[in-house]
Amino acid sequence: MTLDSTNNPYRPSSDHSVHQSGQNNNDNRIDQSNQRAKRLTSLKNSHFPKAHTLKDNQNFDKEKTSVSRFKKIKQTLTDKFLPQNEQNKLLFFAADIGDATQVKRWVDAGADVNWHDKDAVSALHAAARNGHVDAAKVLLSHFDIEVNWPDKDGWTPLYWAANNGHADVVIELLSHPNIATEQPNYERPTSLYAAAKNGHLDVVKVLYDQEGPPDRKYHYVNTPSPFRGTALKVAARNGRVDVVIELLSHPKIDIDDAKEFLDEFVANDNADFIQAIVIKGCSKEVLKYLRDKANEAGKPQLLEILKGGKVSDFFSGYSNTVAFGGHNKAYNGNTDVPKGILDIVKNYLYTH
């Protein structure tokens, strides 16, 4: 019997042909995926040819460092070829906002550290008035810096820093070898005057023992400003009690400008103020003047406090229990103390 080819079980069916075709397509897709993966690997290796082993990674880091160094050199060259006026403005802006890194960048690029704007304000002025001590340090390290340059109003960087209460900048400025002892004029008083006027006690402590010029009869703490008087006078006039107490402790203080202020405190039986002076310590002149005034005004409570007054070179010691007893007696029932003065004095006593 002849078998019909259509009924032959060994003859591949049409379904099997479809299955074989699909298998071939899958194989093709796998091949394509493999080829694509090889291309990606090749592409990756072309960009990162040495990023496979630890040793290769170290070499790759060295390459990155070299690239970074090249970019830095390129940036430096770009900075140096920038117009001088643009460099100066960028330096000024960096100092004004306190970006010490950028200040160094533009100083290294060759910017003029003494360039100033239309108001004669330099980069050092900008750093000093805003209290940017790190930026100021970079500028002060430059060999050509004009540390005493005055702006159009005669304000130096030192005056700006003192006026705005930036003691750390004042310290840096005073450490510069070319800093000049101030000569007050009709436009600008001393930096100590500015600090005392605004109640910047930390700045006063830094400034008040600076020696004046040899040809001047005044110690710096007593240097008067035209039409303004001394630091002690302006502190007394503006009610800067903590500054007044600090200045009165200076062994060379001249109290002539503060006598009116001291008379008022004695007349008002202001025991807290007198007690603060006694605790802080004061010059012999101050102590004698207060005793004489208290005696003239008939103030036995204040005299009792003043008996415990301590006199020494820089007066860091404290009074004895006699003074505290006098303080307690004088304080009871005292109604003539100006508003807020007790809190100011008490705060000063507890923090100094």
Question: Would you give an account of this structure?
Answer:
This protein has 352 residues and is mainly alpha-helical. The protein has two domains: 73-180, Ankyrin repeat-containing domain (Serine Threonine Protein Phosphatase 5, Tetratricopeptide repeat, Alpha Horseshoe); 185-352, no CATH class. Helix content is 59%, strand content 0%. The chain is built from 18 helices and no strands. It has helices at residues 14-47, 54-80, 84-97, 100-109, 123-129, 133-140, 157-163, 167-174, 191-197, 201-207, 231-237, 241-248, 259-267, 271-280, 284-296, 300-307, 321-331, 341-351. Helix 8 (167-174) packs parallel to helix 10 (201-207) and helix 15 packs antiparallel against helix 16. The chain is elongated. The chain starts with 13 loop residues before the first helix and ends with a helix. Residues 47-52 and 310-342 have low confidence and may be disordered.
